[in-house]
Design a protein that fits this description.
By secondary structure, the chain is of the alpha+beta class. It contains eight helices and 16 strands. Helix content is about 30%, strand content about 30%. A hairpin with a 2-residue loop joins β8 and β9.
């Protein structure tokens, strides 16, 4: 069963990717149209291998991204420890297959299948409710979801309360395998059993035409306990290994057309007289990555001091900052804001 799930997942990843780059230790799978969404831009490693070699290759393949991520499909503890020792965040995902009846059944008459467009307001509310959420990120996540929908047949289910969507999820399917994903209950409806209701209904629907039904859950978060009660059993793990940019190395920069971020991941800024350009600056909230992803890159004090000196050394009123435009990898870079919300 686990190998069929791995095959399903690999097929989905390959179909979603807009660009594929083969490496020695892994394969870069990138969706450049939504390059700010972590879950669609990463390096896939089928086996853990040497952490140093894999980390180095991932850095090279993703040198133009604001984040760096490798997904290890069949991880081991040694590799995870190796990445942690190098300052990467390791987030284990449990692969849980439905193998038995739930501990109890609930009434699911309030759940029905809906088109994706009907779920958009609820998805937006859920995103805006996160500390990292804003309207731009909500739109990016919707675009990312459309890429997935084009890659694999996807159905959406919603539980309703007082005429509103209280909870929703999706079911992806191919080759007799169904994945239940993106289970979410709007915060103001939580604690009323909608999560159990929506997942039970999705399982019942998926079981009619699939012999393998599975989902993934963060290994250190409470939903895995609910899924176990609903009849899911852990079969294995996948590790999402990420280097997040340090929040102090980011400035949110606004232009007339889009919102950009500036991050430093290489040696200190060169002189400000190099390829200068005026851009408008607005304060940036310290966006938090997705559940379980709490760590960030370690950035040398000298680099932070260089950034602070650059900011202090220019006239910021009225919030206009003169910055060097990225021309080389060892300078500051401008990149569109991101989200790591699980897709």
């Amino acid at each position: 069963m686990i190998e069929r799930i791995h095959a399903f997942r690999a097929g989905l990843q390959d179909a979603v990717a807009e660009r594929r780059v083969e490496g020695v230790h892994g394969t870069g799978l990138f969706a450049d149209s939504v390059r700010e969404v972590y879950d669609l831009n990463y390096v896939r490693a089928e086996t853990p291998g040497d952490a140093d070699a894999l980390a180095g290759e991932t850095n090279r393949l993703m040198e133009d991204f604001f984040h760096t991520r490798v997904v290890v499909e069949r991880p081991d503890d040694a590799s995870a420890d190796g990445f942690r020792a190098r300052g990467w965040t390791v987030t284990p995902h449990l692969i849980m297959a439905h193998t038995r009846e739930p501990d109890r059944r609930v009434d699911t008459s309030g759940v029905r299948e809906v088109p994706f467009e009907s779920v958009l307001p609820a998805r937006r509310e859920a995103t805006l409710g996160e500390v990292w959420g804003d309207a731009e990120i909500a739109s990016l996540l919707d675009d990312a979801k459309r890429l997935i929908m084009r890659a694999v047949p996807t159905r959406f289910f919603a539980a309703f309360a007082d005429g509103e969507i209280a909870s929703y999820c999706e079911v992806r399917s191919a080759g007799g395998v169904a994945q239940i994903e993106d289970v979410n209950t709007i915060e103001r409806f939580r604690g009323r059993g909608f999560g159990r209701m929506i997942v039970q209904h999705a399982v019942d629907e998926a079981k009619q035409t699939h012999d393998v039904v599975y989902l993934e859950a963060l290994a250190d978060d409470w939903p895995r306990e609910l899924y176990a009660k609903l009849g899911f059993e852990p079969l294995g793990e996948r590790h999402f290994v990420t280097r997040f940019p340090h929040p102090l190395t980011r400035l949110r920069i606004r232009t007339p057309r889009l919102e950009l971020r500036r991050g430093i991941r290489q040696p200190p800024l060169r002189g400000l007289d190099h390829r200068k350009r005026a851009v408008r600056v607005a304060p940036a909230p310290l966006e938090q990555p997705g559940a379980g992803d709490r760590d960030a890159d370690v950035v040398g004090e000298g680099r932070l001091e260089a950034l602070e000196d650059a900011v202090r050394g220019v006239d910021r009123s009225p919030a206009v900052l003169i910055l060097p435009v990225a021309g080389h990898r060892d300078e500051a870079r401008l990149e569109v804001g991101h989200s790591s919300r699980s897709l």
